[in-house]
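sry for the spam today, last one i promise. struct tokens for design, 68 residues
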């Protein structure tokens, strides 16, 4: 079972902040390939584990993407 956190609105039927447990293959592929929005460059989704990221705090990846 793969859990994916959606980082932007309108990724399939999901919106920013959604945590999708047992994510469908397409969403898992988007997260694994680190696919980004073509216009903004923002990462669409990321794979999360059960040890964090589900508590609402920003992931390490999200912190890297924030402007300085």
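last one done:
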């Amino acid at each position: 079972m793969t859990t994916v956190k959606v980082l932007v609105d309108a990724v399939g039927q999901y919106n920013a902040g959604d945590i999708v447990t047992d994510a469908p293959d397409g969403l898992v592929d988007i997260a694994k390939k680190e696919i980004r929005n073509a216009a903004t460059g923002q990462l669409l989704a990321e794979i999360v584990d059960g040890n964090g990221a589900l508590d609402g705090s920003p992931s390490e990846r999200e912190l890297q993407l924030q402007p300085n």
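The chain has a mean pLDDT of 83. ok im logging off now
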